[in-house]
Structures are given as structure tokens and as C-alpha cells.
Amino acid sequence: MLLVLSSWATAGDTVTLCYESQDVRPWRTEKGDGLNFALLKIVGQRLDIQFDFQSIPWKRCLAQLKANTVDGAFAVSYKQDRRELGEYPGGAQPDASKRMHTDTYVLLRRKGSKVGWDGKHFSNLDGAIGFQLGYSVGEVLRAQNLEVDEGSQRADELARKLIAGRLAAAAMGGSDAANLMQGPLGAQLEQLPIPIIEKPYFLILSHALVATRPQLAARIWSAIEDARNSAAYKKQAAEGVHQGVHH
User: Fold this and answer.
1) Contact, 236 vs 38, CB < 8 A?
2) Which of 36, 75, 135, 147 is such that its CA lies 20 to 30 A from the CA of 20?
3) Computed over its alpha carbons, how large is the radius of gyration of the chain?
4) Cβ atoms of residues 205 and 220 within 8 Å
């Protein structure tokens, strides 16, 4: 019996997670606020484990996950090649019921621009579509053989490039776009109504954690589903909507 218990979470276990050192509201801020942290706080309480959160640039976060120097990374959308970096709940076909949240990518254009997106095809592109470095939407754009620009780290930087006429359009996470449209740059931009993609975002765990402590990994993912469906989390998520930070 003791052998079985030893591979489960023991009280006070610490699990190290990295996340992108940027504000992506309402999900997370660089300082550790937002709905992702609210969700993981519930998970930690339910499993009696401590999460050690590390805020680092996204590409480095994923590299540390691959090197097993962190136990997990969030919030990560599914790309097949990311399975080299860590494990998704459900493996090769990620289990969307174990997601942290769902988000969209949308297309922004300069006000008055003729750039279009009908859900399948882009039209009137007179230059590159920009997106943030390492973001999964790049794969979708490249699959359409479009000219792309991956030179921006931050959403506001991408928006400024677009306003300056250095890009034809910008593909951006829905929550980032919602914040920009409400901010000082919003008056110079337009958001197209049809999302480019809508996808679930996961906590992915390191290969080392899943190999050595599979029960702990399974319990964390199950607790994420339970916490996301809990009244306590839903209340916080609803408050996010009322603050206008949810899209």
C-alpha cells in the first residue's frame, strides 16, 4: 500500500510551472493574477500541492519544459510538434475536457483597410500578416502559404506595426485583441468578426513528471476539469466577463 501512495501527491509537494511573462487578460498577468491562477489555486488546494510559478519569455518557458527543468507550462494550445516538449492530457489526441480555458485568434486590420477573412480565405492582403513570436496561429497562416511576420514579442508592438503600415493585418489572441480594442490604439484598428481559429489551452506537464509520477499528472489534469466546472471558479470567470476583459 505504501508503494502505491508514494507515487501520488504527498502533502506539500511542489510542482514548478512556467508561463509567459506577459499580460494576457483575463487569463493571466505577468504578476500572477487572472483566471489561470484562480483555477490552479483551486487545484492546489484540492490536491494539497504547492505550485511554484515562474514568469519567463514563452520560447524559453517551452525550452525549459523540454529540458525537464520545470514540471509544466501553461496555457498551451495543441500543436503536434509540441508533444516533443511535454505531455498533454489525453496524449496524441488531447482531451479538451481537461483544458484550462478556450480562446480564439482573431484578425485585426487598420481602420479603413480592405483586408478580409471569411472563415476560410483571406482577401485583399497587401503585405504580411503579423503574429507574436512562437504563437501557434503561425502554423495556420503558413498552411495557407501567406506572407507572415513573426517579429513581435508583444501584442501592443504588433498593433503599432500594423498601424504604421508595416503589416497588412495582425493575427492575435482574442483576449489580447479585446484589450487592445478597448485601449488607446483601438480607435485606429478594426477586428474582423469571424475568428481565425478557436482552440482549447492546456497545462502541459514535463515528460519526466509524467514518466515518474503518472498518477500525480492524472490527478492534476482531473482536478483542472473539476475546478473549471466548480461554482467558485465559474463565479470568478463571470466577474471577468463583467469587467469587460473576457471576449
Assistant:
1) yes
2) 147
3) 19
4) yes
- Segment 222-237, tens digit of pLDDT: 999 999 999 999 999 8
Q: Which residues contact 232 (CB under 8 A, 6 or more apart)?
A: 42
Nearest to 92 by CA among 79, 104, 101: 79
Task: Classify residue 118 by burial, with Cβ atoms within 10 Å: 0-12, 13-18, 19+.
Answer: exposed
How much is the pLDDT for 12? 62
Question: Tell me, what amino acid is at 38?
Answer: A
Return the H-helix or E-strand segment holding 244: none
Q: Reduced to 3 states, what is the DSSP secondary structure of residue 230?
A: coil
The low-confidence residues of the chain, meaning pLDDT below 50, are: 1-9, 242-247
Query: 175 near 26, Cβ under 8 Å?
Result: yes
* 24: Cβ contacts below 8 Å, ≥ 6 apart: 34, 173, 175, 176
- What whole-number distance in Å separates Cα of residue 49 and Cα of residue 109? 44
- The pLDDT score that the predictor gives to residue 76 is 94
pLDDT digits (tens, 9 = 90+) for 32-48: 999 999 999 999 999 99
Q: Transcribe 162-210 into DSSP letters.
A: HHTTS-SEEEEEHHHHHHHHHSTTGGGEEE-SS-SEEEEEEEEE-HHHH
CA 174 to chain centre: 11
All cell numbers assigned to 14: 511542489
